[in-house]
Amino acid sequence: MAALTTSRIEELILYSNHLTDSSCPHLASGIRNNQTLRTLNLSKNNLEGPHFTDLMAALTTSRIEELQLNNNFLTDSSCPHLAFGIRHSQTLRTLDLSYNNLEGPHFSDLMASLTASQIEELQLPYNRLTDSSCPQLASGIRNNQTLRTLNMCGNNLEGPHFRDLMAALTTSRIEELQLDNTHLTDSSCPHLASGIRNNQTLRILDLSWNNLKGPHFSDLMAALTTSRIEKLQLYSNYLADSSCFHLASGIRNNQTLRILNLSNNSLEGPHFRDLMAALTTSRIEELQV
């Protein structure tokens, strides 16, 4: 790692190298004053531990723009160190924390630091986050002016605090939001609706692998008409023929939607014709059923 400080390497991949927390001081010495390294991939190692703080401290003086830490056994106790690293980094734009376990009281530290960071893409899939994390997530994105992509797939966000996250979405600058496989049900639809209704930046919304069928699905579709969404993923949502009427109302006068994925539902029935009739006046270019 000492040699790295004098090298001209721009991308370093250390994926699946059995690195542990004891490697963090050496990693820190390598990146601390390196002026060329832009991408560092540390995925699928085991960096959780007391020395992880050394790595995050060194991040603040590096020029790294993309840091991949997915599958590193990181827990809630790592969040204060992650927070320190991203708060003071002037170059970090992409942070991948997928497949860790960040749920806990210190997750709020990470989210608080997000507001002062320059991060544009944050990956948080499969972090065992629950509804209780939504207020912290909300505080992180509410006034953030740089975040454009937020991936929350594979968590469990259904619950009363999900509305906090959706309320914060209206003042964020997020363009792509991935909420696939987050255990959302029909009761989440009013909150989803409030989140997208007046949002001016959201272009891609992935709601695949949830269970949105129910009476409140109409709220989501009504909000779609005033949103700026261009791509909507509703794959595997247990939608039935009775959902077609609401889908039709959502796409009939929408001026922005170009891609709609309704695969792996059960839309067969008399109301399917409503959906097809609405298609004739929509702007959809790609439909998957």
Describe the structure in your own words.
- The longest helix has 9 residues.
- Helix 1 packs parallel to helix 2, helix 6 packs parallel to helix 7 and helix 8 runs parallel beside helix 9.
- The protein is elongated.
- The chain is built from ten helices and eleven strands.
- It is 29% helix and 11% strand.
- By secondary structure, it is of the alpha/beta class.
- The mean pLDDT is 95.
- It has one domain: Leucine-rich repeat, LRR (right-handed beta-alpha superhelix), CATH 3.80.10.10.
- How many beta-strand elements? 11
CATH structural class: Alpha Beta
Q: What overall form do the CA principal axes indicate? A: elongated
What is the CATH architecture descriptor? Alpha-Beta Horseshoe
Structural class by helix and strand composition: alpha/beta
Low-confidence stretches: none
User: For the report, how would you describe the main beta sheet?
Assistant: 11 strands, parallel
Mean residue pLDDT: 95
Biggest sheet strand line-up: 1-2-3-4-5-6-7-8-9-10-11
Question: Roughly how many Å apart are the termini?
Answer: 51 Å
Number of contiguous helices: 10
Helix/strand order, N-terminal first: EHEHEHEHEHEHEHEHEHEHE
- Approximately what portion of the residues adopt beta-strand conformation? 5-15%
The total tally of domains equals: 1
Radius of gyration: 21 Å
Helix content: 25-40%
Specify the CATH homologous superfamily. Answer: Ribonuclease Inhibitor
CATH topology name = Leucine-rich repeat, LRR (right-handed beta-alpha superhelix)
Pfam families: LRR_1, LRR_6
